[in-house]
Write a structure and sequence with these properties.
Blueprint lengths: L15 E7 L6 E5 L5 E6 L3 H11 L4 E4 L4 H11 L17 H11 L7 E2 H7 L6 H9 L12 E2 L12 H10 L5
Parallel strand pairs: 1-4, 5-6
Antiparallel strand pairs: 1-2, 2-3
Helix pairs in contact: 4-5
């Protein structure tokens, strides 16, 4: 019997992600969720290159189709933007990234609501005090803006520095959370 040559293609269909555009007080957001109802990407709609980058880096082999986000995601985001700030804790999410990026993103989630930290303090907090630039790059690569609160990281002198959605949105988010920026 002759051995069959495998084509290298998997018979397993890649997971299909769902994309919904939702309104917020600071502009529409693109919300990408998976079949388990978890948030996978959140970017501002007027930043299509950031959405494309997040999908390319973290979901390269997954199709994205328009559709409704699960209620837990939609309701949690809507409640947050309506002033129920702790509602984001109920939003189910998962992200990939490198081990270092996940370490930084987990550090972001631990920044208390209504507080900020600097890139240097975040680097220290995760046990990587000399990796300030790398922390900044990981912060920029965060695919779930707002929910993983990269907007809570500011410059060492207190300056509002880079935010993928723009400084005006960063200022709004911080003010919304009770931070004078």
């Amino acid at each position: 019997m002759k051995a069959r040559r495998r084509s290298g293609r998997s018979s397993v269909r890649p997971e299909v992600l769902t994309l919904e555009v939702l309104p917020t007080p600071i502009g529409e957001i693109d919300v990408v969720t998976d079949a388990e109802g978890r948030l996978r990407v959140l970017e501002f709609h007027d930043e299509p290159l950031r959405l494309a980058r997040a999908l390319r880096l973290h979901h390269r082999d997954q199709a994205v189709e328009p559709g409704a986000a699960p209620a837990a995601v939609r309701d949690g985001l809507a409640a947050y933007f309506a002033g129920e700030l702790t509602a984001l804790k109920a939003v189910p999410w998962t992200i990939g990234g490198t081990a270092f990026q996940r370490q930084v993103w987990n550090g972001l989630v631990e920044i208390p609501l209504g507080e900020t930290t600097s890139y240097a303090r975040l680097a220290e907090r995760i046990g990587r005090p000399r990796a300030v630039r790398a922390v900044g790059l990981a912060n920029d690569a965060n695919p779930i803006a707002v929910v993983v609160p990269c907007h809570r990281v500011i410059g060492t002198g207190g300056a509002l520095t880079g935010y993928g959605g723009g400084i005006a949105r960063k200022r709004w988010l911080l003010a919304h959370e009770g931070v004078k920026a």
